[in-house]
Amino acid sequence: MQITPTLNFAGTCREAIQMYERALDGEITCLITYREANDPAYMPLLNEEQKEYIYHAELMLDNQRIIMSDQVDIELPVCYSNFLTIMYDTKEEVQRAYETMKEGSKTIYKMEATPYSSCRVVFVDKFGIRWGIMTEQTER
């Protein structure tokens, strides 16, 4: 079994996946718009702008996949109880990723050393996704 995180957006998936690709050294391996998918369950309900929203996208981070999409049929409240944690080997990697993702974000725990990490930051990005970015150990 494999658990695959799935992130949903309200029209900003393309911008988010491109930022995450840069910040986390990922690779977008799939990006399908609603227009391209041509799903008969959705097409009659969408306006022209929504047809360019992302129906399904996949971002690979090393050998791990994150699935992403724009939701057009439900409200998406911000949820602070669930979040993704990215573990890096070095403080510099944490700093680089956060630097790319911090614009428009809300910091929950500032970047600092903790008893379990030499560098940790927790924030909600401008898309409403909560992230924890840290080193796995205190030595680096």
Q: What oligomeric state best describes the polypeptide chains here?
A: single chain
Strand order of the largest sheet: 1-4-3-2
Query: Into which percentage range does the β-strand content fall?
Result: 35-45%
Residues in helix, %:
10-25%
For the record, the CATH class of the largest domain is Alpha Beta
The largest β sheet comes out as: 4 strands, mixed
Give the structural class: alpha/beta
Give the total of domains: 2
What name goes with the CATH superfamily of the largest domain? 2,3-Dihydroxybiphenyl 1,2-Dioxygenase, domain 1
CATH architecture of the largest domain: Roll
Overall geometric form = elongated
CATH topology description of the largest domain? 2,3-Dihydroxybiphenyl 1,2-Dioxygenase, domain 1
Brief synopsis:
This protein is of the alpha/beta class.
